[in-house]
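pls ignore typos typing on phone
zinc ion + seq
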Amino acid sequence: MDLVVEGRAYIRGKLGHWAIGIEDGQIVKIARTIRGAERIDLGNKLILPGAIDPHVHLRDPGLTDKEDFSTGTLAAAHGGVTTVLDMPNTLPPTISLSNLLEKKEAIAGKAWVDYGLFGGCTPKTEIEEMAPMVVGFKVFMGSSTGRLLVTEDSDLNKIASRVKRTGKVLSVHAEDEDLIQFNEEKTLTDHLQNRPSAAEVSAIHRLSRLDSKINICHISSAEGFQALEAYPFTKEVTAHHMILDRESEGGAYLKVNPPLRTKDDRLTLFQAFVSGHIDMLGSDHAPHTIEDKEQEFDTAPSGVPGVETTVPMMLALMKRGTLPIEVLIRAMAERPASIFNLNKGKLEVGLDADFMVIDPRSISRININDLYSKCNWSPFEGKEAIFPKMVFVRGESVMEDGELTGDRVGRDVIAAR
Ligand code: DOR
Ligand code: ZN
Ligand code: ZN
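k done
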């Protein structure tokens, strides 16, 4: 055995004192004590599965003034995220085998945590060719950053059945382009008026006619959440849609798609999440530079960073007693692993040894100076958070007390098979 870590570990749905034996990056033994190996005794600190963020935009290649695979995965590790699934609206967009290979080459050797790549869907996308090398597919039904837009039901239909044959999940940005308006915007409320809940609801109903494993990204409205109850889709929620709303201070910095909505929407989503009715926590980490965000509201790009802060804020809510530990772990690790078919997500023999160590007493406030994301701002500055003390990716220590400790061990979850 290469390493044994011992502490209060979350095993089979509860915390208990366990020793976890690791060999060749995987968990090989879980017992009350394990002898004869290099041991790390964590005392009363908690050992939790590493988080899997099913939705990030790390901007590599082509938009690396905003983020790149190195800074983005460093930010992930700092926030307890040991696997990121990266979206295809990079430059060029990941819509053909050659674009995908180009992206793989651009990011090779840069990652501090494991990753999977999404293929972007357009009517011309080489779905079948890319399938063996992507973790899933993504389609944008409403326009946002980048040009990957599919608005016609006939195209969506063809895309969904082609994706179905690959066995992969189709993650959807569900806002109906026909119900989005492009009036001039000066405030978050104007942005919300242009992108009403009805656009989300309509997109969800249209998707219900498709035959594929569909995952709804960033559910953002109470009505959208209610509409989803009728359908078998899996769903993601972001921290920003649960913590911020159109009344929040930040102007264009908080411009994001789908938009921040009303306090009512926010509280409904938070309640749904806390009570375990949303499958996955996904940050939709969408960094833009300060210069991008300092433009006039109307021309500033949409998107907020979050991969580094989402899990730490949720850990603080867990410590405060607002969020049950089993709900958080299911949404940040177990469900993403099972939905995207990853050999991860639990502290269990045979799975990758991806985990974080936290001290629940060390609550801090998010401070931009501590963050690794290249964009250098956060919509959550000042919020309470618990940053992990240690983060391990396949048994290798990557971070300790917010400082790098290891090598760039991150690899593609698909290529590793
Ligand atoms: O606000 C958003 N930003 N929504 C998206 O769908 C894309 C993202 C980005 O890539 O900036
Ligand atoms: Zn989206
Ligand atoms: Zn996104």
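Residues 50-339 form a domain with the TIM Barrel fold (CATH 3.20.20.140). The first strand starts at residue 3 and ends at 11. more later
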